[in-house]
Amino acid sequence: MPEQNPILIHGSGSTARVTALALAAALGHTDVPLHSVTASANANDKSNNKTGDKPGDNDWGSVLALSPAAKTMLDILGVWPRLDLPSAAVCDMAVYGNAAAMAHNIGLDFNPPENLPPTQAENPDAVTVLAHIVSRSALDRAIHAAFNATFDTLTAKLHRHDAALTGFDKSTGAARFSDGTDLTAALLVDCARAATDPRAAPLWRTKSAAQYLTHDYQAAALVCVLACDRPHGGQAVQIFLPDGPLALLPLPDPHQRALIWSLPHSRARALAEIEDGVFMHELARATQGHAGTLAPDGPRGLQKLVLALAENYVDERLCLLGDAAHIIHPLAGQGFNLALRDAAQLADTLFDAQALGLAFDGPHVLADYQALRRADGGAMAATTHILAEIFSGPQSRFTAPLARLGLALTGRMARANQGLAARFRAQANGGTAALPRLMRGHRF
């Protein structure tokens, strides 16, 4: 067995920490040290959410929709049991081409049938809960707590660097930190958020082959908690509107929903600042009242919408993961799920390499990670981008009517063919490839 140099995990937020947890699960039985770089010299890295160590008044102001496979992975890594706020199960999801289609229930419905066909009922991978809605702040706290607990257990193998990473040579693995220390790494797993402006990217990325395809949607997602006059019943709703998609996600309180409304910058800023009564009027006009009476229940926030997709995820000893590899439109709620699939696949790849006695920085060791994750991330980025553009982009006055028709026809076919509906649910759960070990509930 070759002596392995340490693995550096770079990033100050939850993606980097959960990646450290996944690699610790895969390699904790070996002598391979893991170094987690928790400080960042990259001003563009917004992944370190400044959340407190206890639940706050606006913890539901930003939420994530986690797939069942993602929940399974977080369970195994000890994150899910540490959530200090409840999650909400999405048992039904309906997607509509406009508010009128919602009124007539003409759209794509992901609702699992009450009576599955025998072949599906016998399938342990059949998805009956479509997603779990969690508070982003609560999840950050749970990941941080699980990371600290793992660090306390594996202090000889899991190390924290409080100094920022200032340089990395992808050819030799030489890394330098802001405190002047040096380290030779087998891999740098870079999880820090991608810079949409290449001039703001870390130097080791600009010198690599990992150039980015970028797009600025000139839009922002307006997010807040809504009080509703009718129970949501565990249903998530998405409506494609001319200005951008509007999503209503169920929260643990049956009379509360999370709003994620994509809008052009100027309109998003205006709706974030206007008084509650006018906001309620605009929301009712957008939904045409078909979602009931909706009122803001807390502050409103904005999240800039951009697309960034790395051309390559692997370049010699540099491995991109999570926001470093892909930032996608939030309309499918798949951003953090993609990051978790990246981490789980990398854990599989390195575990298998170690079992075969291969050096982590050897040729083609990360070929499967590159191929599988690039395909999944690229497919999801393309799907969300195309949907956003054909329903709400500059040419939407021509493309949206055809897209609404296609959505309605797809919904009708899915209702008639439960096998097709099951494939849609499986795609949302696991992406384009077979699920890695952690997402199947398997330990290393």
Overview of this structure, please?
The strands form four sheets. Strands 5, 6, 13, 14, 15, 16, 17, 18 and 21 form a nine-stranded mixed sheet that branches. Strands 8-2-1-12-20-19 form a six-stranded mixed sheet. The longest helix has 26 residues. It is 36% helix and 24% strand. A hairpin with a 5-residue loop joins strand 9 and strand 10. Helix 1 runs parallel beside helix 9, helix 9 packs antiparallel against helix 10 and helix 10 packs across helix 11. The protein is globular, with a radius of gyration of 22 Å. It has one domain: FAD/NAD(P)-binding domain (3-Layer(bba) Sandwich), CATH 3.50.50.60. With 444 residues, it is an alpha+beta fold.
Which key phrases capture this entry?
444 residues, alpha+beta, FAD/NAD(P)-binding domain, nine-stranded mixed sheet, six-stranded mixed sheet, 13 helices, globular
Question: Approximately how much helix is present in the residues?
Answer: 25-40%
Structural class: alpha+beta
Report low-confidence residues grouped into runs of 5 or more. Answer: 43-49, 114-121
CATH class, named: Alpha Beta
**In oligomeric terms, what are we looking at?**
single chain
- Overall shape: globular
CATH topology: FAD/NAD(P)-binding domain
